[in-house]
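4.2 Preliminary Data

To establish feasibility before requesting continued support, the project team ran the inverse folding procedure on a target of 80 residues. The structure was first converted into the token representation described in Section 3, and no sequence information of any kind was made available to the design step. The complete token record follows.
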């Protein structure tokens, strides 16, 4: 006969799942199924950063807006 020294209780956990994302530029709504069509920026500004030292910066941008912003500065690298 094995005596358990640990007693457990059951808990119900509520988990929130995003249903849509909204582009901060064009305000287009993207469903969670198409989340690959979004780019999420999340960083802290460094010393003498134009964003401000230790400023927490977040931005959600759809692929269309991101392309419009950076298309003239992109390099396309072919995989080997």
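Position-by-position output of the design step:
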């Amino acid at each position: 006969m094995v005596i358990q020294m640990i007693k457990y209780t059951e808990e119900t956990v509520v988990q929130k799942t995003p249903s849509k994302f909204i582009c901060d530029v064009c305000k287009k709504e993207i469903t969670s199924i198409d989340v690959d069509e979004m780019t999420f920026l999340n960083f802290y500004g460094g010393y003498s950063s134009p964003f401000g030292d230790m400023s927490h910066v977040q931005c959600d941008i759809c692929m269309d807006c991101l392309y419009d912003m950076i298309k003239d500065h992109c390099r396309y690298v072919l995989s080997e």
